Amino acid sequence: MKRVTHLLTMALIFASVSCTKKFETYPEERTFETDVFDPTDKQGVLATNYLLGIFSFLPSGFNRIDGDFLDAGTDDAVPSSFASSISLFTNGQLTSSNYPDNNWSNSYTIIRRSNVFLKNIGIVPIPEAKRKTQVAEARFLRAFAYFELLKRYGGIPLVGDTVFNLEDNLDLPRNTFEECVNYIVSECDAITTELPRGSTIPATDFGHIPSEAAMALKLRVLLYAASPLYNGGGVESNPEIRVLTGYPTASEARWVKVIEAAEPLIAIGYYKLPTGSGTSVYSSVFTTKINTDIILSKQSPNSTTIENANAPVGYVAPATSNGRTSPTQNFLDAFPNLNGTPYTGSTLTSVQYDNRDPRLKAIIFYNGVQWLGRGVQTFEGGLDKPNVPFKTQTRTSYYLRKFMGDFTSSSTYSNQSHNFPYFRFAEVLLSYAEALNELGRTEDAVKEIAKIRSRAGITAGPNSRYGIKTNIDQLEMADLIKNERRIELAFEEHRFWDVRRWKIASTVLNGTARGLSITPNGSSFEFEHQDVATLTFKDKYYHMPVPYSEVIKNKKLIQNEGYY
Fold it and tell me: Shortest CA distance to 229 belongs to which of 5, 563, 541, 556?
């Protein structure tokens, strides 16, 4: 009887609690749109913070894929670690389930949050000029996110200004490549006049989006659209997929659009190549927070993260270095002589590093280079290539130097500006030159490349052609422009996509990544070529796989050809 009474008492207690306590239907700590977009917030503080938070979802660039640069998935470098997932891009084992650069979720987070901002910013009582600028910034971020998707997958679902709820039908089909290009371009056109010119943005607001960034995004989208892979050169056999990943037929008019996008941006005149020339001038572009070459970059606090991640491994204390990136001999061979002519000398001697394009010394550590008060030792058994079991070290006898401060004679690292560049003026000139040459205006293209080579420190030579031969033909100039992009934009996430849009990946990414083995011999060294990786490329890798996790959620998503 006592047991029954006890059970009845407990039942009454629970009944009482259930009548007075309502269970949560959402997390109490959740922030609602009405909390952020407040009609009483005259300064728009919360809304501004929400917008700035979207910037954080933009790709970081540096060592972002399993600790490695995307360029380590090309012929320009290999990861120093054998365990890095970046190798999936070059070992023939990439699938829709193991894809290491899945940007789908991240980009759609940017798109959704931008749409939330655009939907609600109208109720915040901020000045109209500020509202227009912030609306334009949100639209830029959304357009940039769509391009990040487009270059990976081809056409993707365009959602416009829609903010979806959980009860909405989220099974959306992919838009065609052409529809996506047109949408991004139209967004860039719409916001260009709403964003401030770079010359008017005060230093205290550096990192906000200038109108030139919208113009540069438009230029890059049109450059890709005009390129062989997308401009009628798709590799797909299925016409339904082919229209998702490019234009079914080629058109020379697409190159005209590239020129029409580049010339107004160049004519503004604020963004330009830095004055001076040589190794230090090139290096300073990446360590000087505000300069006229950088149109837009990823903002981050000053730090030593790049030095710690990528400098030679023998520097342990007080400056720990992890040597994550091993540039290849293939990449080093791309650098011309100091006079701009192709290098044809030996690659089995240290003489190969002398009298070359000055950018080489700004981008690559090689044996003997001074760093932190001593010479780099990438010879076998050296401090920076000790050959200790399970030790991450260079696989090629080279390390990546680009993006680092000058610590030639320092004893340790000091904090540096490391803002990953999204858009640079040098890229604008390279894109312009490529389009000019494609339309037969080869000598006009020579003038643009000469500007970049001059700043690089290559000697002018006869008729100030900077090593570009007289009467160079269109095909020769196309190869020279490709090589110039490879050097100038190295490790800025261009090479990976360039070899695809040019449709040369099946050639340059099927072969061998090479390095050197350097052996001490008394007071000198013996050099030997060393194969460090076999590169494998399949035609399906021209486009990335739509993530398997997305395909199984959305039954209307068509997977790219060759993936499951």
Answer: 541
Q: What are phi and psi of 243, to 5 degrees?
A: -75, -15
- CB of 516 within 8 A of CB of 353? no
Whether 564 and 552 have beta carbons less than 8 Å apart is answered as no
Is residue 505 within 8 Å of residue 94, measured between CB atoms? no
Selected residue with higher pLDDT from 394 and 11: 394
**Sign, Cα dihedral of 370, 373, 374, 376:** negative
Task: List all residues 6 or more positions away from 32 whose beta carbon is below 8 Å from its beta carbon.
Answer: none
Cα–Cα distance for residue pair 503/508, rounded to 1 Å: 10
Residue 7: per-residue pLDDT: 36
**Position 2 pLDDT exceeds 70:** no
- The span from the CA of 109 to the CA of 114, in Å, is 8
From residue 560, how far is each of 73, 90, 178, 242 by CA, in Å?
Answer: 20, 19, 16, 9
Lowest-confidence region among 23-27, 159-163, 168-172, 314-318: 23-27
CA–CA distance, 68 with 86 (Å, rounded to integer): 7
Q: How many CB atoms lie within 10 A of CB 475?
A: 10
Beta pairing class for 524-535 and 511-521: antiparallel
Where does 92-201 have alpha helices with state H? Answer: 104-120, 128-153, 177-192
CA distance 457 to 340: 10
Q: How far apart are CA 539 and CA 144, in angstroms?
A: 26
With a CB cutoff of 8 Å and minimum separation 6, the contacts of 140 are 187, 188, 191, 195, 209, 213, 214, 217
- How far is 210 from 201, CA to CA, in rounded Å? 8
Burial class (CB in 10 A: 0-12, 13-18, 19+), 215: buried
pLDDT digits 0-9 by tens, 51-75: 999 999 999 899 999 999 999 999 9
**Mean pLDDT computed over 314-322:** 91
